[in-house]
Amino acid sequence: MLKILIPVDGSEPSLLAVRHALRLVGAGLKARFVVANVQESANLYELVVAHDPQVLQQVSEAAARDLVRPAVALLSAAGLQVETALASGDPSHMLAEILESHGCDAVIMSARGGGLRAAVLGSVSQEMVQRSAVPVTLVKVPDEAPTDG
């Protein structure tokens, strides 16, 4: 059974990757999934004004848990095995680490994220294609699809 990484950012375009995975399973693919979210590290301003760095970490983890929830719900509702992976740092670097640490056989991800993240996730998807030792499937976002999370 394949283990597939699906990075999500909470946007509708990132959920297209989940729906693509569900179509593949419906067509007979035997797979289990790791749904991942990577939060960017705190910026200098946040570090300076935060009196407790653990608070920043807790906020980041809570945001990540919230952003993976819709993807996990879709996969779980289909009766599929789902793990979550939450990280903070450079998205493409951390996704590569998650890919390796979870022993994933493939990646399915959106070709771009939503809203302000559109340019970032687009570059992350391209970096994953270059960096990944396993196949990466990019799910194209139709022009008419909403891009706001």
General description of the model:
This protein has 149 residues and is α/β, with parallel strands linked by helices. It is built from 5 helices and 5 strands, in the order βαβααβαβαβ. The protein has a 5-stranded parallel beta sheet, with helices on both faces. Helix 1 (12-26) packs parallel to helix 3 and helix 4 packs across helix 5 (118-131). The longest helix has 25 residues, at 53-77. Residues 114-121 have low confidence and may be disordered.
The helicity comes to 40-55%
Morphology call: globular
Order of helices and strands: EHEHHEHEHE
Strand order of the largest sheet: 3-2-1-4-5
Radius of gyration: 15 Å
Unreliable spans: 114-121
Average of the residue pLDDT scores: 84
Assembly level: single chain
- How many strands in all? 5
The profile of the biggest β sheet is: 5 strands, parallel
Question: What structural class is derived from the secondary structure elements?
Answer: alpha/beta
Distance between the termini: 31 Å
Total helical segments:
5
Beta percentage is 15-25%
